[in-house]
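Example record

One chain of 177 residues, shown exactly as stored in the release files.
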Amino acid sequence: MLRLRTWLPLLQVLIAAALITSNLLRPDPLSSPSFRAPDRQFCDALNAPVVLVRYCWLRFAFREFPQLYEGWAGVIVENVVYLGLVGLLWYLVSIEIGGRREGKLSVIAGKTGVRTVCDLTFVAFGISLGFISIFGNPGFGTYYGLFAVPYFIWAGVIIVFYGRDLWVHQKRWDTPR
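Predicted structure tokens for this chain:
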């Protein structure tokens, strides 16, 4: 399982870096049409949960530190953070995949010690991802209708995965012993 935890995040970061680089090599990569490019849209759709986190982080950072996002400095900072979050996302996915093989509930939620709160947080995150992607926000890859589908798939998987864990855990808790 160590191989999956190493190679899956590394592979996804390399794919994301290649797609971002392809997008940045376009003429005038800082212009608005650049973000409508299929390579960046595909990268964002593949890593939809990261896009939600990045979107919230960028809105906060741009409001509080607007001078940071002038020119290429903002692009570099944004992409370094993005690639780090992509690696983290796929590392967490590999942990959950490894835990499911053993028939357990969510490994991540179980290690926190507050399984119910963690499961509820992940379900709320999934609902937020699905809800926000409906509105076609420019940071959520919905310029092309087809690229909105992965956001709904990610949202559905997160909601079902952690919702099931919440349900099973609550049933175990409520059962008389």
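Notes: The radius of gyration is 18 Å.
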